[in-house]
């Protein structure tokens, strides 16, 4: 399923001309405060009834919404959802203009709001404020993304018919897109800023105060025709830290907003196991809905989601350890499995799966994931092989809370079989963060998003490496604070830590705050393969003020996420806690909504929000030499010497055979050494994608090449004119 139409739409779902978007962004360490204002004008000759749709990251805390219509500012209040809906209906029946902002009933990361009648020539400025954690990338960058689906999609010249939305979007050149974007960002960090990068043209970046703060703005005239992505690199991104934020002076004492809040960031130095586990049942659940024919990004229409997904499956198949079990499911409106039951990973089963992957298409209709999940979980567990589920999807589903609940129930039901984890991947723009993050969090897995020019393979292989590592156990958090002060944890107790991953927890500091020079300490403890580890961090207890109360609101959001499982599913006691924190902190939940009434305008606001989608068929992308080489590797890690290998290496088979240094040597040994050397020489920058399959290849060389190994390696380096260090073949 493609992403829903977003931006300000008429009841007939025609786009209202968007004149400009203005974003103010404040990034402090690892969190961001965002204020986005969208300016629209009705240039039609008739009044329009319009509504506003705004998607965002599931971890974002929405705390303010207001509309400026014909010069009148209307600020919404946060109320219990049923009460807000009643007030809204009453206002409409009395002829008042009303505004209702709430989470979508079916997904937790899309918000909808009626904004009333827009008269001919009238203008509407809609401002929404939120705070969010910034995800940490593998290279240490903090990433902020302003999605293109913030507004109606205008189809550019040269794009195919369709485009994913049931809205009239006339094909126009990019230079004529009738709206612009301005973005001004301020970045500050005690760690020091190494650099700030943007995928769009920007003005000169100003670094201030010994590079502990920076200012960056988009260049004038930017057309909002792509995602805007900021990457922030700090000097010491992997340093544990604690930020203490002052409470709101006007708030009630001993309340979450009145007390100081703290955000603790850990980067556990978990050692990577030298001998990863070879056991596990690896099930890959791949989205094959029609929208997987869409491109990964609009700048490169030839790079399709389904093509990238197929390449990724090949990488994963080649990287699995011998002795494990696996299966592949495709889903859309229906689902199908490669094998009736998960099969043992052998050369034969891998080859059969590979043939089916290559013929796989995005031809299964919509995005209905619950049925295949139930089918997967209904299978009897394989003793000694814990289930590791990998889910790839580009869309969202109509029953996100049910899907997350299914994953959570099965994770809890099979604790005896240890770690039925789910690793989830959102593909392209518009993937549901509520779905992707929700199922990963519910199962103790990890979530990844692949957008723009990012390679799906690298993120999928990183997840596979995590799934093969020993499990971190006995995780606990302890506080050492001055007498009279205590920490109340607002985040769930950490249960999963992966190597190279950041862990953030929030706490409320209750009691008497000590003098300014006082310090506290918090310690993360865990056990790995029988050995105990501790990560202590000391911090100042002098709180800092923040007008946006960013940490307080993110702490509230973290607390809400632990108890809020949807408007209809949350237990009564948890709902009471969610309502209290949501209303106290002004952070929206599935049980609250923003309501505003304009009694000066006697025109009713009408109509429910509707959704629609259209798949966009396109041709498949071609495989590159790296994909060809990887697809030829055998399950045991070796390569055969044949025309396929020669083509991938860009050489003739005759030349390769003639260069074999020891004519009596096994040709597969020669082929495997060449393949490994070529990987290191040509694609060292993608090592994270082929590291696991290369590990299998080197192990195979050691067990099969014997005394001929050193000669084969030297000959391969000479033959390929490579600078690769022969030490890469060391045991």
TrEMBL record:
Supply the SUPFAM superfamilies for this chain. vWA-like
**What single Pfam family name could you report for this chain, choosing any that match?**
VWA_3
> The VWFA domain covers which part of the protein?
281-468
* Top-rank lineage group of the source organism: Eukaryota
**What Gene3D superfamilies has UniProt attached to this entry?**
von Willebrand factor, type A domain
- List each copy of the VIT domain by range: 2-132
Under what name is this protein listed? Answer: von Willebrand factor A domain-containing protein 5A
From which source organism is this entry? Pipistrellus kuhlii (Kuhl's pipistrelle)
């Amino acid at each position: 399923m493609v992403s829903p139409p977003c931006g300000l739409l008429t009841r007939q779902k025609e786009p209202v001309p968007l004149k400009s978007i203005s974003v103010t962004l404040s990034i402090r360490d690892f969190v961001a405060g965002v204020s986005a204002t969208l300016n629209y004008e009705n240039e039609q000759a008739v009044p329009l009834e319009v509504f506003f749709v705004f998607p965002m990251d599931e971890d974002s805390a929405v705390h303010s919404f207001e509309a400026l219509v014909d010069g009148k500012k209307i600020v919404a209040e946060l109320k219990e959802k049923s009460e807000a809906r009643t007030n809204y209906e009453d206002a409409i029946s009395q002829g008042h203009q009303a505004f209702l902002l709430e989470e979508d009933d079916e997904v937790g990361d899309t918000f909808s709001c009626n904004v009333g009648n827009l008269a001919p020539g009238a203008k509407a400025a809609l401002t929404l404020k939120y705070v969010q954690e910034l995800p940490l990338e593998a290279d240490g960058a903090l990433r902020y993304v302003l999605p293109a689906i913030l507004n109606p999609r205008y189809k550019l010249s040269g794009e195919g018919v369709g485009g994913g939305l049931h809205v009239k979007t006339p094909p126009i050149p990019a230079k004529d897109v009738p709206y612009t974007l301005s973005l001004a960002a301020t970045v500050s960090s005690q760690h020091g800023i190494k650099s700030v990068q943007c995928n769009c043209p920007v003005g000169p970046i100003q670094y201030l105060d010994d590079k502990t703060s920076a200012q960056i703005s988009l260049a004038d005239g930017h057309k909002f025709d792509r995602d805007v992505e900021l990457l922030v690199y700090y000097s010491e991104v992997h340093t544990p830290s604690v930020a203490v934020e002052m409470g709101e002076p006007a708030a009630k004492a001993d309340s979450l907003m009145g007390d100081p809040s703290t955000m603790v960031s850990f980067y556990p130095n978990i050692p990577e196991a030298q001998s990863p586990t070879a056991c596990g049942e690896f099930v890959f659940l791949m989205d094959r809905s029609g929208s997987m024919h869409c491109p990964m990004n609009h700048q490169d229409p030839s790079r399709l989601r389904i093509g990238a997904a197929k390449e990724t499956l090949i990488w994963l198949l080649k990287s699995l350890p011998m002795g494990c079990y696996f299966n592949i499911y495709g889903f859309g409106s229906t689902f199908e499995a490669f094998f009736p039951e998960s099969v043992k990973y052998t050369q034969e089963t891998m080859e059969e799966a590979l043939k089916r992957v290559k013929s796989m298409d995005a031809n299964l209709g919509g995005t209905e994931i619950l049925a295949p999940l139930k089918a997967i979980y209904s299978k009897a567990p394989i003793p000694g092989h814990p289930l590791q589920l990998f889910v790839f999807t580009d869309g969202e589903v109509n029953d996100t809370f049910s899907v997350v609940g299914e994953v959570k129930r099965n994770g809890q039901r099979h604790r005896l079989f240890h770690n039925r984890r789910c690793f989830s991947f959102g593909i392209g723009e518009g993937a549901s963060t509520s779905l992707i993050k929700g199922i990963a969090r519910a199962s103790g897995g990890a979530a990844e998003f692949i957008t723009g020019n990012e390679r799906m393979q690298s993120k999928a292989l990183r997840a596979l490496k995590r799934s093969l590592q020993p499990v971190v156990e006995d995780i606990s958090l302890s506080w050492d604070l001055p007498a009279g002060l205590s920490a109340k944890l607002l985040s769930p107790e950490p249960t999963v830590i992966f190597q190279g991953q950041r862990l953030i927890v929030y706490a409320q500091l209750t009691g008497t705050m000590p003098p300014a020079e006082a310090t506290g300490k918090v310690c993360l403890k865990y056990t790995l393969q029988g050995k105990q580890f501790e990560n202590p961090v000391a911090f100042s207890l002098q709180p800092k003020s923040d007008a946006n109360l960013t940490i307080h609101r993110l702490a509230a959001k973290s607390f809400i996420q632990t108890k809020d499982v949807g408007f209809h599913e949350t237990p009564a006691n948890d709902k009471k806690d969610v309502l209290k924190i949501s209303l106290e902190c002004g952070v929206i939940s599935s049980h609250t909504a923003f309501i505003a009434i304009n009694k000066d305008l006697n025109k009713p606001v009408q109509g429910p929000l509707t959704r629609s989608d259209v798949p966009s068929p396109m041709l498949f992308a071609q495989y590159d030499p790296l994909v060809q080489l990887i697809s030829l590797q055998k399950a045991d890690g070796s390569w055969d010497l044949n025309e396929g290998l020669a083509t991938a290496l860009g050489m003739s088979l005759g030349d390769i055979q003639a260069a074999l240094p020891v004519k009596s040597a096994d040709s597969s040994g020669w082929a495997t050494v060449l393949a490994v050397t070529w990987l290191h020489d040509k694609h060292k920058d993608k090592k994270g994608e082929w590291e696991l399959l290369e590990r299998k290849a080197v192990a195979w060389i050691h067990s099969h090449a014997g005394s001929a190994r050193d000669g084969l390696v030297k000959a391969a380096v000479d033959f390929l004119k490579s600078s690769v260090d022969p030490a890469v073949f060391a045991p």
